Amino acid sequence: YYEILGVGVDATGKEITKKYRRLCVKHHPDKNGGDRHHRTKFDEISKAYDTLSDPEKRKMYDQLG
């Protein structure tokens, strides 16, 4: 998930959110005519953010991968 968002494992919550927002704007399906590639990428970005922005989920992800 860190790679998807383009952040390091030591990234702060603020850095993760900043990168997430940038990527959402770039890959949002509404901005890209519903292109399937962007929809898939947007879903990956959202899932990565959901995990890394939640301290408990992030801790589990870091431990289990």
Folded structure, characterized:
One of its GO terms (biological process) is ERAD pathway. It comes from Triparma laevis f. inornata. The chain is 71% helix and 0% strand. It has helices at residues 2-5, 13-27, 36-52, 55-64. It is elongated, with a radius of gyration of 12 Å.
Distance between the termini: 9 Å
Helix and strand element order: HHHH
Strand percentage lies at under 5%
Which parts are unreliable, with pLDDT below 50 for 5 consecutive residues or more?
Answer: none
Helix amount, in percent?
A: over 70%
CATH C-level: Mainly Alpha
Give keywords.
65 residues; mainly alpha; single chain; 4 helices; Helix Hairpins; J_dom_sf; protein-folding chaperone binding
